[in-house]
Amino acid sequence: MNFYARTTAVVLLGIFIIQPIWAQTFKIYCELEGVIPALEDRKLKPEKVVVEIQTMGKNLFMKVVGSNFYTVQASSLTTEEFVGKNLTSEKLMGVTRKHKATGFESEVRIERETVMMTAFNDMDYRGKTVRVLLSGPCIRP
Known about the structure:
The chain is mainly beta.
């Protein structure tokens, strides 16, 4: 077998046998209510959201997908920008993260037995830092 044939065989073998490892996304659906305590306990209209949960290596990633006030991202991963922490225990699954430069924090927790979710997200609202608190039941998968 000449050099070209061997190189082609190795490349094809690599393409078909060695596949990239992608984390599978687990989705859970929740109906949340939100409140912003810093704005005179302003209540937000309830919203149905999707919580996407992924693990990659030893890190846990949780993302609440909803409208502006109902979007939260947190992970246990620590990077140059964020400090993350895994809060998972026998009673709950959760993560928290803090932005190093702004101090903004976000957290997502889901109780295992009741499948109730609580979350918060710091954000800039009209030049003021506010914390949006979210809570509500999720549908058992």
